[in-house]
Amino acid sequence: MNVFQSIKPLEQALNASMMQQRTITSNISNVDTPNYKRLTVSFQDNLQEAAKNFQSYKSNPKHVPFNNEMNTNQVVKTDKNTLNNSNGNNVDMDVEMADLAKNQLWYNAMIEKTNSQFRDLQTAIRGS
């Protein structure tokens, strides 16, 4: 069994969070750009991407199987349905700042979980 198996999904979740961060900061930096359409990242698509390589182990045949099926939807999407400004730009700074804060909380939680995994490995190696 690969001891780093549980780290891979966390790495992918962190990568997804970084993609979200880049997308939000791109929207914020283009808040005054005429005809700019805000970009969004679907968390569900990122979760499915992270779960794609996750290997489950069933100790009992009655356990519910882990679903590794992946939806192949595009991860970064352009929001062309809303129009907020007279210049054709649809970036709402309040929405972007709220999304930025939510993403930062998610990233911090994933960092804490990753650190916890490494601490567990360290404890197992030291035997204490």
Write up what this structure looks like:
By secondary structure, this protein is mainly alpha-helical. The protein has one domain. Helices cover 52% and strands 5% of the residues. The chain has helices spanning 7-29, 43-52, 93-126, and strands at residues 39-41, 76-78. The protein has a two-stranded antiparallel sheet with strand order 1-2. α1 runs antiparallel to α3. The two termini are 21 Å apart. Mean pLDDT is 80; it is low at 68-74.
Brief sketch in words of this structure:
It contains three helices and two strands; from the N terminus they run αβαβα. With 128 residues, the chain is mainly alpha-helical.
Oligomer: single chain
Domains, number? 1
Question: Could you tell me the strand content as a percent range?
Answer: under 5%
Number of helices: 3
The average pLDDT score comes to 80
Report the sheet with the most strands, covering strand number, pairing sense and barrel closure.
2 strands, antiparallel
Topology:
Elements: H1 7-29, E1 39-41, H2 43-52, E2 76-78, H3 93-126
Antiparallel strand pairs: 1-2
